[in-house]
């Protein structure tokens, strides 16, 4: 947050304070400040002087210059907070609306590809981290934020603190995953990296957690080493976790809870890529009488 609070105007400082009051994370604060900067650059004057027509023109400008829908919507979210909360003029946004974002089907790995990917990870720490991402369906940031104390071997759960939406939940801890985590703990402890009550996956400095950038770099190296030609990211393992559970006929509401999804509609996306489920469906063509 130091980059946000150095040499800032009173208006920007008020916005930062408004976000801090609501305990927005640093990434969200940075994105919201960037959105207001974009508007100021478009207006060439202070953003708090914008009119409703100028905000409409700004959205048209983003569309005409080829700005991607996710970026447009993220920018509008930041502006909504600025005008609604910081300025108290929500009515100025009446002429701007979020744009539809086409949602492509997620990339899903086969079970064999997941096994090859994990085995090809650079070292035991990354093998264990990728195993957590797939075996428990965690997001990259959630994997990095795990502490040794979050492992509950008696209840066979992983405690995920302050996941997306600042919500706590319990994730699945299978016997195989538990054994892999224990194997990593023995290696990390022998290397002096596992501090009492510390991170499950420490970074170069054991006082700091592994970063999502390091984790993403590791999975890309593993995908290359395993000769997987699909577009792979940490979220691919989460997609694969959900899809494989659905193919095992696990109730979709259970999968929703394990993933920490707020809406069932989000989880239902995986019904479109669960090929085992599709293959189990008998086409009505098969039931027609022979001519």
* Strand coverage percent: under 5%
Order of helices and strands: HHHHHHHEEEHHHHHH
- Helix/strand-derived class? mainly alpha
Q: Name the shape in a single word.
A: globular
User: Alpha-carbon distance between the termini?
Assistant: 73 Å
InterPro entries: CB, DNA_brk_join_enz, Integrase-like_cat_sf, Integrase_catalytic, Integrase_recombinase_N, Integrase_SAM-like_N, Tyrosine_recombinase_XerCD
Protein name: Site-specific integrase
Pfam families: Phage_int_SAM_4, Phage_integrase
Keywords: DNA integration, DNA recombination, DNA-binding
Summarize this, please?
The chain is mainly α and 291 residues long. It has helices at residues 10-21, 26-43, 52-64, 69-86, 111-119, 124-136, 140-144, 175-190, 212-225, 234-247, 252-259, 264-267, 275-280, and strands at residues 151-152, 157-160, 169-172.
How would you describe this structure in keywords?
3% strand; 291 residues; globular; 3-stranded antiparallel beta sheet; 2 domains; mainly alpha; 52% helix; single chain; DNA polymerase, domain 1; hpI Integrase, Chain A
Tell me the layout of helices and strands.
Blueprint: H1 10-21, H2 26-43, H3 52-64, H4 69-86, H5 111-119, H6 124-136, H7 140-144, E1 151-152, E2 157-160, E3 169-172, H8 175-190, H9 212-225, H10 234-247, H11 252-259, H12 264-267, H13 275-280
Antiparallel strand pairs: 1-2, 2-3
Written description of the protein model:
It is built from 13 helices and 3 strands. The protein is mainly α and 291 residues long. The protein has a 3-stranded antiparallel β-sheet with strand order 1-2-3. Helix 6 (124-136) packs across helix 10 (234-247). The relative contact order is 0.09.
